[in-house]
Amino acid sequence: MSSRFYFGGSDSGSDVDDDAPLPFPKPLDRSAFLAPDFDATEFLSSLSNRFQTLEDLQTELRELSQTLNKELVDLVNDNYQDFLTLGSTLSGGEERIEDIRLGLLGFQREVNAIRGTVATRRNEVAELLKRKKALRQETGIARSLLEIADRLDELEVKFNISKGRAPGSTDDAKSKDGTVQWGEDWVENTNYDSDDEYESDEDSGVPPRLRRRTEEFLMLKQLMSRHSAHHPFILAQDSRIRNIQEILLADIEAAIKQEPQVKIKQQMLQIRAAVEG
């Protein structure tokens, strides 16, 4: 059999016998298949410069595969005892896996129990926060009602209702000529009611104390309007409110009759409308 020669030698044709057979391509390099990013398409594209038919390439690849299989069998046969030892070291692995599985199941149950406890505590905290909010609202309502009660008591004292003053009566005494005269209660200073802060209202013509009583009554109505008209406490104070309102309207009416200036009378009429509203 004649010796083969391969491509890749000298380019000079003087070293090649004219009667020698055609050159053969070099055998495939095994290292080309060991690349981590090996791609068959790119590998075949790199063989475009090989003067080799597709059938010859397939034959060479089959021979290479058979060679690798034979080497693998020889490797197993040569290291058979080592393979047996490896198998014996893996014995009992199923039991260990089962132990791990049982441990994981127990851990999962504990986690689920903790989650249930956390969910229960979260619901309890949410309920407590809801109750706290409701109590805070009720506390605010109670404070507002106490303020209304205090203002009612103060107005009753200032209108002498607690002393038996009847609705419709005033502290004003009519003179012999029929004109209304303001009583001492509207003129003299008292410890709880000073006119100093109302000195700026003297030019308006409206008696300072009457204006102050009106403002206090309107403030009381404003506070009561924040609550439902059907609230038991508000309903219980209806008679007291009406009593104060009637006395205040009587005092305003007396002041209107006494006032000679039309402009001031108009102001008092507006005040009366606000009290009646």
Protein architecture, described:
- By secondary structure, the protein is mainly alpha-helical.
- Among the domains are: 22-88, no CATH class; 152-276, no CATH class.
- It is built from 8 helices and 2 strands.
- The protein has helices at residues 40-45, 54-78, 80-89, 93-158, 208-225, 232-236, 238-258, 262-276, and strands at residues 173-174, 180-181.
- It has a two-stranded antiparallel sheet with strand order 1-2.
- The longest helix is centred in the middle third of the chain and has 66 residues, at 93-158.
- The model is unreliable at 7-14 and 163-202 (pLDDT under 50).
- This is Conserved oligomeric Golgi complex subunit 2.
- Residues 47-74 form a coiled coil.
- It is found in: Golgi apparatus membrane.
Question: Helices, strands, pairings?
Answer:
Elements: H1 40-45, H2 54-78, H3 80-89, H4 93-158, E1 173-174, E2 180-181, H5 208-225, H6 232-236, H7 238-258, H8 262-276
Antiparallel strand pairs: 1-2
How would you summarize this macromolecular structure in one to three sentences?
The protein has helices at 40-45, 54-78, 80-89, 93-158, 208-225, 232-236, 238-258, 262-276, and strands spanning 173-174, 180-181. The chain has 277 residues and is an all-alpha fold. Among the domains are: 22-88, no CATH class; 152-276, no CATH class.
